[in-house]
Amino acid sequence: MEAFIQQWDLVVSGVDALGDEDFAAASALSGWTTADLVAHCARSGGALAHALIDASPTQTADTDAAGAAGAGRGEARAGDVGAANAVEYLGGVGGRAETIADTARSDAAGLSPSELRSLLRTAVAASRGALAAATTGQPGGPAAWDQVVTSPGGPVRLGDFVATRCVEGVVHGLDLGLAPDRDALRIVTRTLVDLLAARAPGRSVEVRVPPFAAAQVVEGPRHTRGTPPNVVEADPVAFVAVAAGRLDWSAALADGRLTASGERSDLRPYFPLL
After folding, report:
1. What is the predicted pLDDT for the residue at 246?
2. Which residues touch 119 (CB under 8 Å, ≥6 apart)?
3. Whole-number pLDDT of residue 155
């Protein structure tokens, strides 16, 4: 919860600091103005409030009964039938890209910079309040984080949906030129490494994103001892940028933000993840 709050407060502050003229300028997203990006951030940052308002008591009760086993890293549990985890949710984002872009432009249309700043601020505050209300008296408990809520991508557990909101906050914060909150960056890095492992299952390449995550991916000979023959390593911000399609794999290699060694270490076919 704190990571979500800290990251989205950074985004709100960053947008508040923009000049009015910046909103009409092109953003880091191709075909999007900064105004479109801010409108999308308002929708993304406010999505938790809508999800919690729409949460089904029946879904919550069923999920509570299932217990907390498997929570936190997207493992399926009994009672979660039809509920996506964070990796599954993010895996479907690409298929909604055009709709997301159209919605952002529609949301931004006709709004002044002042109105867009207010829209974002209000949306994030609503999610902060809704999340606090949902977890009051039971911090980290299954009744709070394991309830199933309705999201733009379908039913998802609250804890997993919060992780996806951290992904949105960090990625779009980077789009706005903002250094991410450390805890949010940790959550996002681990989630995206998990998504890569789901997209490229196997044990032949070791992916390292110190100090937050590591995983073995890609089919092929399994490494068990000594120095791995195939290693990909990146700092967390560079990995997130490559995963989100903001930084090209080749460019990251060229400037040293990403290193890849071994004949199986070219992971370009799997990126971007989002």
Report:
1. 96
2. 38, 39, 42, 107, 111
3. 94
Could you give the 3-state DSSP secondary structure of residue 150?
A: strand
* Residues 185, 120: Cα–Cα separation, whole Å: 21
- SS3 string, 184-203, reads HHHHHHHHHHHHHHHHCCCC
For the chain, list residues with pLDDT below 50.
Answer: 56-80, 140
Per-residue pLDDT at 95: 81
Q: What is the pLDDT of residue 143?
A: 56
Measured CA to CA, the distance from residue 113 to residue 105 in angstroms comes to 14
Length of the chain (residues): 274
Sign of the torsion angle spanned by Cα atoms 184, 190, 193, 198? negative
What Rg, from alpha-carbon coordinates, does the chain have? 19
Q: φ and ψ at 146, to 5 degrees?
A: -100, 0
Q: What is the pLDDT of residue 145?
A: 86
- By DSSP bridging, strand 231-234 and strand 205-209 are parallel
- Which of 214, 192, 187 lies closest to 203, judged by CA? 214
Q: What is the pLDDT of residue 138?
A: 55
Which structure tokens are listed for 174?
């980077």
